[in-house]
Amino acid sequence: MNKKLYEDKLITASEAVKLVKSNDHIVVGMMGAEPQLFMNELHTVADNVRDVNVSSCLPILEAEFFMNPKYLDSFRVGGWFYTNTLRKIHHQGSTSYIPNHLHFAGGKRFQHIKPTILVMATSMPDKHGYVSLSISNVYELEAAEHADLVIFEINPNFPRTFGDNQVHLSNVDYVIEANYPVPSQDSLEPSEKDLVIGKLIADEIPDGSTIQLGIGGIPNAVAASLMGKKDLGIHTEMFTNGMMDLIKAGVITGNKKTFHKGRHVTAFAFGSKELYEFMDNNPSIYFMRGSESNDPYIIGQNDNQVSINTSLEIDLTGQVASESLGHVQYSGTGGQTDTATGAQRAKNGKSFIALYSTANVRNKETGEREEVSKIVPMLKPGAAVTLSRNDVDYVVTEYGMVHLRGTTVAERTKLLISIAHPKFRDELTKQAKELGYII
Question: What is the value of pTM for the model shown?
């Protein structure tokens, strides 16, 4: 590595935030790749700037510049995918959701508003001067190619990963030295319901399939239920602890993949410290930019591709609402539509939507919690449809699995009622008749 090139680019976080100007569009790294030093300093220049847009995705850090409403005139956050961090502040007007499919997230946003600054956490530069984008390449490389300024928080704790995620120091404007731990999360223990759903899905996944999994109890249960399979592959948006466990167990080899054979394709990773250690300098894990890893046409090049996603609510015609509770934004579309439609393009591909049959919600009139069906005649008013009824395939609850591909509204209505909680089936049938879905 050219030591002088590196040293000439070194600045502190407090110096970096002073580069921000009014009307700038700052793009920050996704989830664990957030630039913590920069973000924790950004509020210090609030008096000097106005109308700065910050685009973020799955944020973890509760940074002062957007959590404190007094900085509303200076900073606004556009979120590609909400977490509790953004849900907390949505009511104060300092953040707004960016509707998107993950493979278009960067491209469409940057067509609307050009990024002026990219800031993210990365690995250390190697001896040749290349910096790995480490645990996220969803939209960050695209942002680097468009931005006027590229600022990396290089950190020895971040794993060096491979793929279409290498940036030479000569293409980086400034470097901030950091040493905070990589944000991490241990695997969630699956519940009894998760395990039932996980086994139902795993039984439909043949040896040699290529899988996409998310994070949470149900995906973890699916991973655990796959331990008896052979020669599975990975083409996913998110690399998880469960995938690492399957690779270590010899279940995932990638040997039967028809696209990037032997490589575990992903766009970002989030998990335990053990996961990051496993990924470090591991050439089998290949980070594609999200515009490619999540392109349904590219996903469909994997024979036997399997997509597994979860949902908040589904109506009797098959409309899947996975990101909002009525009109209230809860999470995001993410890659659900990308991977579901991509899997169905694949030879022998399958897409699964999994959800519990019920949820416990607070009754607005009584204030008491009550059990409600998550399979409903109609979605809540204002609900965002994440996966259209035209694209739904398998739907799974703890009461069973149904295959909706190619079915009529009448057929799928009866199928979905059959996997609803038993105590809601009669009422769902009655409402379906009133709506004219069935006779």
Answer: 0.94
